[in-house]
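Re: Re: ligand-bound prediction request (bumping)

Still looking for help on this. To restate: I need the protein modeled with protoporphyrin IX containing FE bound, output as structure tokens. Inputs repeated here so nobody has to scroll up.
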Amino acid sequence: MNQWLDDRLHISRLNDKFLRKAFPVHHSFFLGEITLFSLIVLIITGILLALAYEPSNSLVVNTFDPGTATKPNLVPAAYHSALKINAMPFGDMLRRTHHWMANIMVAAAVIHMMRIYFTGAFKKPREINWWIGMLLLIFSALTAVTGYILPYDNYAYNTVKVVYAITASIPWVGDWVAQAAFAGKFPGAGIIPRIYGYHIMLLPGILLALTGAHMLIMIKQKHTQPQYAKRLAYKKIVGVPLITQQTPIMLVLALLFTGLVMLFAAFVPVHPVEFFGPPSTTPINNIKPDWYLLWVFGALAIIPSFEWHLFGGLIGAEFVGALVLPGIVMALMFAVPMLDRTTENQYYAENPTNHPVRLAAGVAFFAMMIVMSVAGYKPELISSGLLTTGNANTILWILTLLVPAVSYFAVIGIVRGIRALREADERESLAHAHADD
Ligand code: HEM
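Reply:
Sorry for the wait, this slipped through. Here it is.
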């Protein structure tokens, strides 16, 4: 059989080129794989959900609460199909697994990115994979946001209203872009089919293409390796081959991981569509995005309201807070491989404490994202009495700048301390060695 296939498809060449690739054995290297498994489970659960979901905002009678013959209870077909999926055997479980997996995928990608950043794995020759990874992160978040809109309950309706307004806030071309992206003026008749197309075809297609490129580049360039590989065989690839050893490890991990997420989903419900009901004129106060986009909401919350008219266009706080500031943050992240001027890193995952400035800058950046996410809760901070309408913006701005600055210098101080201890240790062992001689 093998020979038969080999004569036709030259499988052995594939085997030599790809399937013998050595994978480093280290827990931190599973983070990228967990992101990959999440993407696969999302695609499988998404296909199953798509079999029962109706991508339309046309009104249909709500069979769960039909109303009367003269006054039928009409709801969007998409919303109705979400209720129907919940009522199907395992339907709710499918929605939960899909939802939690999306959160885990973004979380795993963020932690994976932190591993890459703190160990210098983004440096030459791996800059292209850092940039592709950034795109993966952005498109994962967009895919999740479009997914939230699909059940088309009042929460989703209000969310898409906010996203539409943000898109329309782009100076000069905003209205046109928003109408092109959301199939007409909000809430257009074609809004759900359009978002559905993005969520099940365009965005997953982009994610799959980017993931494919990410993997091929990683195979071509080879992993950075854990420090122990240096001691075992200097500048040689140390690890287990994809076939036959790494694959069973990955399969076991994938099954265990999926099982755990399903167990979690069995106990922790997701967003209750029936609680919010179909879209209505009742606004929902304090709409919040998922945790990974809260920082954008924070930026939007603390930017002072202003309007600046320029050549017939309007530059306002919404545009600056929701698009310009996050754009600057993203640009900074894209620029990481250009900002780090230390020597290239062909082989080994670096010890973060050997690069204190990079370590401190990363921690400061992370601290800033957390403070900005907390700023996303500005209305709640005011209503709880912790802040007042008068001082909220000033205090949140001070914290947004101060906490990262303090974190930066604290990390530099701690790393200096650790290095001083390490050097003292080394001096001591050297002195002992000389004494023994
Ligand atoms: C969102 C989907 C993503 C998937 C499915 C994914 C998957 C993977 C996998 C399986 C690996 C090999 C295992 C490992 O090193 O952990 C890897 C390596 C890598 N990833 Fe990702 N990744 C994603 C996002 C990102 C992000 C957000 C970044 C950074 C901005 C990134 C940058 C890299 C780099 C530079 C490598 C090579 C690491 C090395 O050689 O040590 N990836 N990725």
